[in-house]
Amino acid sequence: MNYEARTIGGEPQQVLTDQTPPSHTRRNIIIAVVVILVALAIAWFAFGSGKKDAAAPGAPTEQIPSVTVIVPGRQTVDRVIAATGTLAARREMPVGVAGEGGMITRVLVEPGQWVAAGQVLATVDRSVQTETAASLSASVTVARSDETIAQAELDRAQQLVDRGFISKADLQRKAATRDAAAARVKVAQASLGEARARNGRLDIRAPAAGLVLTRGVEPGQIVSSGTGVLFRMAMGGQMEMRAALAESDLLGLPVGARATVTPVGSAKGYKGEVWQVSPVIDPQTRQGVARIALAYDPALRPGGFAAASIVGGATVAPQLPDSALQSDDKGSFVYVVGPDDKVVRRDVKIGQVSDSAVTIAGGLQGNERVVQSAGGFLAPGQKVKPVTKATTSATTTPTSIKRG
């Protein structure tokens, strides 16, 4: 019972207060208690009963996950080597001054122009050389006249020697004079031929048919044998790519290997083949050069940069999708499902990588059941329910593989 202090008639009095709750409040409390009891009962039947069933003999103690597995087999895979390098003329011909030189009077070709063997590329002033040749030509005429006179005198002497007017000694002297005159004719002719040959070398000519790449001379320029290169040509217009490759890539790369060259800034690839493999390795870069022959095309400009894909043979190995591969600090690995349907870790060595598959260079034979995906949610020794996925034929050859 509770008492409350009140003032009645000026004096404090203790009055008993009524603490009886209203009837509707009591009813609400009873209903809430009943609802709680019913909920507890339902929960007990739902969870308590399930635990008893799980603990029953013969019932599974854990849920076994289903995983998709593939048997990769072994496929024929092209060994494709990715490389970069520069474009160049396969046989570059530097053209300079072959003769004495002089002042350039005309330049007859431009870069990018095709020329024939022996075609004149530029001419050199020859005014002095022309006069010299004319003088030598006159010398030849004089020598021939002397020879004619000497021959006539010898003929008359032969007629007189039989009559006794001239001795045989005089006849021999006249024969010697005729021979000397004939020799002087030959000397003059040789000098004239030399002069004409020198004049002919004043013309700067193409040593072979091909494509003019550069021009380094203009009219009025003084040139000589020490001037250097005046023109650069590509023999026959043949081009090549000089691909820089590591030692391991050069090993086993055959001459005649197919290649596709793509210049920088172009989406078009140009077919070619390796025609020479470097016999030496640069001691600084530890690289060698594979020279890829290419047919002429205006887009293949010497000095430009390009990328190449070289097919350097083939190998037989398993291939897996990228989702099957896992990696950690120990390296790359896959999960293999053993005969007891338990997951086993298998370390692998990755080979070439393409957009569609990864070649396994070591660690798998190809007849294993490999987890295709979700390997990150599994653990070694875990039991799974494997679902085998069909794979492609073992003879399938990938068409687009790049070196990893």
UniProtKB/TrEMBL annotation:
The YknX-like C-terminal permuted SH3-like domain, residue ranges: 319-385
Keywords: Membrane, Transmembrane, Transmembrane helix
Superkingdom as given in the UniProt entry: Bacteria
Keyword Plastid: no
Positions of the UniProt region annotated as Disordered: 1-21
Domain CusB-like beta-barrel residue range list: 242-311
Gene3D superfamilies: 2.40.30.170, 2.40.420.20, 2.40.50.100, Helix hairpin bin
Location of the CzcB-like barrel-sandwich hybrid domain: 101-229
Cellular component terms (Gene Ontology): efflux pump complex
Transmembrane segments: 29-47
Pfam families: Beta-barrel_RND_2, BSH_CzcB, YknX_C
Molecular-function GO term, any one: efflux transmembrane transporter activity
PANTHER family in the cross-refs: HLYD FAMILY OF SECRETION PROTEINS, MULTIDRUG RESISTANCE PROTEIN MDTA
UniProt family annotation: Belongs to the membrane fusion protein (MFP) (TC 8.A.1) family.
Name by which UniProt lists this protein: RND family efflux transporter MFP subunit
Organism encoding this protein: Sphingomonas aerolata
